[in-house]
Design goal:
CATH architecture: 7 Propeller
Structural class: mainly beta
CATH class: Mainly Beta
CATH topology: Methylamine Dehydrogenase, Chain H
InterPro entries: Ran_GTPase-activating (IPR051553), RCC1-like_dom (IPR058923), RCC1/BLIP-II (IPR009091), Reg_chr_condens (IPR000408)
Distance between the termini: 28 Å
Number of domains: 1
Shape: globular
Keywords: Guanine-nucleotide releasing factor, Repeat
Organism: Brevibacillus formosus
Pfam family, one: WD40_RLD
Protein name: Regulator
Number of helices: 3
Number of strands: 24
Strand content: 35-45%
Amino acid sequence: MEKKIIKISKKICNVILVIFTVLFLSEESVLAAANAVSSAAGDRFSLILKGDGTVWAWGKNNNGQLGDGTTEQKNVPVQVKGLTDVTRISAGADYGLALRNDGTVWSWGSNGYGQLGNDTRIDSTAPVQVVGLSDVIEIAAGYTFGLALKKDGTVWIWGEGSNLIKSTKPIKVDPLIDVKSIAAGGNHGLAIKKDGTVWAWGDNSIGQLGINNTYSTSYPNKVLNLTNIVSVAAGSKFSLALDVDGKVYAWGDNYHGQLGDGTNIQQNVPVHVRDLKDIKEIASGSSSLHSLALSTDGTVYAWGYNGYGQLGNGTYTKSNQPIKITTIP
């Protein structure tokens, strides 16, 4: 059961993005997006991974984040150049990451902070290989930094983030070992160890590391009061965790209610997200101020900031507790 949950965890945003892609894109775009198996959303651009291992992108493209060899904005999906056999994708602020089935990682788009991991700071309109990485099994894109989990349970990081990292090529996150899953927030990282504990490092200005203080650190610390965790997700300055029993926990920034505990009070340690049970997937994003969850019965919940209607409940009013999204066909 746990393996099944791990395999499907952290994909709810991708599922929802694919659904709304099919609903709102033109006929030609729908054809291009057919057979999408996962997706990722950056800052005003989108990525989808198709079943044939190719990656497609649309939206803003000023830094080459669509990976099509140009810097021209596209309002229909275009293929990311030269990428095949891709198994996972992730999107940062204005760059993309892809993991191929040979364990290599590829990146494209903005590189002013070294987030492409190719030991330069030069933007790229087409995919380049992240240097020095092999046997990678999972990737995560933070706002301007990348994470990779290797088969041996070690975590590698590159790019730049406040109190996190400043490197144009991957370096090992010590002393993390025996890691089975990762997530990247705005300027912080999360890792689940095989023993079900969660570890966090980076910016902690609003308690997003869950260590009962607001001291930032580049050294991974164990998040307090969490056990049997199977999935993690990270927002701009807050974090989420899902345990084996389907319960959801959150900590960090809560100004917009993104912790879903019924308050707008910052929390420096994990608290229960209200009124959720039997959850199998959770999601947020490195620049997100809202959260999503999917239950085993197919119900989607959302909470947090709603200034652009991202909670999907027909209003623009934020919510500090989960609400059901009832308009998905």
